[in-house]
Amino acid sequence: MPSSTDFGRVHFTDRMTDDRHAAAEKITRNMPGMERRKERLILRGIGLLDRVDTGYRLSKAGKELGTAYRSAPDGTEWVKILGHLLLTREPRTRTLIKLISEPNAELYFTDDEWWGGSLQRATINFSDGKQLVPFAKSEHPIPNLRSAVRENSWWALGEWRDHEDLSAATDCRFVGQLKEDFSMHDISLAIRSSMEVLLHLGVIRSQADRCWLDQDAAVQTFGMTLANEFGWQSTGKKKSLREWIIQFADDLRLDTGFIVASELRDRLRQQGFDNPDREIARLESEGRVVIEATDYGQSRHGVGLYDDPSKQLIKLRVS
C-alpha cells in the first residue's frame, strides 16, 4: 500500500472523514515502525507495517499478530503478543511501566475510577515519598513522562536499538517533529490504550483511584527476559483459583458490592481457567465460595453466571 492511510481504507473501512483521510486512519497511525526521512529517523509506532519502496506491507510482527488473532480471536495469545510489542517497542509505555515497576509504586487518579478525573494531575507515588505527574504537559515543578523518557532514552528505545539505521549508535534522544521537545498532547489517551491491554492480561491491577503492576502476573505472562529488563521480582508461587477469585473480586467490586459476572469470567480465563463457571460451581458445591446475592444487569454486562440472566450481577464471599 502507498501509505498507512491507504492500508486503512482497504482493510478497515471506506468511510471518509474528509477528502484526504480514512476514518480508520487513527487505527493505522501507530502500525508503521522506524523510518528514515532524509537525515532524520522517525519512530511512528510498534512496527506492524514495514516501509518498502512501493509503500507499506505487513511486517513479520504484523503477520504473527494477525495469525494469532485469526486462530483464536477470543483467546489471550494475540493480546500477549500485542502486549509484548508495546513493552518492547513503545518508548512511552516502556518508561511508564518501568516507573511503576519500582517497589510499591502506584499510579493514582483524581477520581475513584480507572483512568478517571483530571489525568494531568494523576500521580505516580513512590515508596520514598517522591512523585511524578506522567501526563502533565509541563515537567515543572514535578517531573512528567517526557522528563522520564529523556532520562532513560536509550533504554526506552527497546528493540529499536537493533534497527539497522542504529547499528553504530550507543545513545539517542527523542525530539518532536517541529520542536525540540516531543509533544505531550493527548499523551494520557495514547498510554491508556497500552494500559488497557495490560489490564486485560491481569498484569496491571486497578482498584478505586489507583492501579499498580502485578509483578507475579507480569513474569508469568511475559517471561524472564522482560522480567530482567524491567526488574520484576516474582514470588514463584502460582495462585490457586480461590486466590484469583479473591483478587479479582476485590478489583471488580462495584460501589453496590456487586461484581459483573462476565468480567470475573474474563479475568479468570486470562489466567488459564478454560471454564470459570464450572470452576466456581465446584467451589460453591464445596462451600468454599458462597453466592450471597444476584441481580439482573444490562445488556452491556454480558452473560450471567451459569448462563443465568438473573446472575449478571453477583455478590460472592470466599470462605
UniProtKB/TrEMBL annotation:
Top-level taxon in the UniProt lineage: Bacteria
Protein's name in the database: Uncharacterized protein
